[in-house]
Amino acid sequence: MVWVSRVLLRKYGRFMDDLRIYVRGGTGGMGFARLGGEGGKGGDVWLVAQENVTLKRIKARYPSKRFIAGTGVNSSIVALKGAKGKDCEVHVPPGISVTTDDGEVIGELYKVGDRMLVAHGGIGGCVATNFFPVKGQKYMVHLDLKLIADVGLVGFPNAGKSSLLAKISHATPEVADYAFTTIQPELGTVMYADHKQITVADLPGLIEGAHANKGRGHKFLKHVERTKQLLFVVDVSGFQLSSNTPFRTAFETIVLLAKELELYKEEFRTKPALLAINKMDLPNAEEKLNELKEKLQSPEDYMHLLPKEMIPEATVKFREIIPISAHTGEGTEELIMCLRNVLDEDAEKKIENSQKEKLRALHHSEI
Description:
Elements: E1 18-24, E2 45-49, H1 55-61, E3 66-68, E4 88-92, E5 96-100, E6 105-109, E7 115-119, E8 138-145, E9 149-154, H2 161-169, E10 186-191, E11 197-202, H3 217-224, E12 227-235, H4 250-264, E13 273-278, H5 285-297, H6 300-303, E14 318-323, H7 332-366
């Protein structure tokens, strides 16, 4: 028997996935000209990935969002070589990408304990600087959080992603019969009888043109990058964003989702994916499901009927296709077990490949 629990990012308040901060290395200490003394170097500013940290907490604790390292100690008769200024450590959540104001990526902090130097302190006053200290580096940097989850729910608005997360995790995200109910990522935890846990991220709905940052395009797509497994959630009856946009069948919806992911990042072409066909409790759902399955078995027979700009370079190969109703719960138990199975399979393959690499390396070293 599977039982599930909810882990809400909302317990920390409104979810925040980006933050702009000011960092400045410490100024070096003054040199002692008469005795040739050298001032201490200014402290450095480091970003350090740590558990139980959120960007919202950083902003709340440091409203000015300014992080400045300590000044180097002046040279003196007692100590001709001044001590280095105190480093400034900024604790950030793992999964942070650090960029400059112009979008250049400085680096990433993937896991707890990762460290990154973002602002060097200035050197102390010495002969080369006429014994005057040098100021530290200063920057405005962006902390961009990309959720790390086992499974990412991918779909257009109103496909039922929030309802599905609520059903499999007994959660209470905002659910309504209109588009864009989810405007911030939600993270749920599914726990199994053997205490195995998987995290599922419900991400804001895509729209056509998301790869070009239409709607909340990039804010959604960046979170897909670090999910191990994609779960496409599609309305069996199709989708229409508004009266001013074209109606898309379930098949066209899948094609468009694949295209948006591919245009954002080519690596998404090979990302493993499952497909949940939602709203199977609606009239004529079985008939529409059979029609969709037929098209998915031979997609090339139907792709040529679509506009060229809709067609992805690579057709998504779904590992499993599961009909569900997030409303009634139909198929959700099967989906929960399917998620567990594919993630376990991937973990086993990763271990096997690692062992093969070690044996191959050992074999080459013996030769």
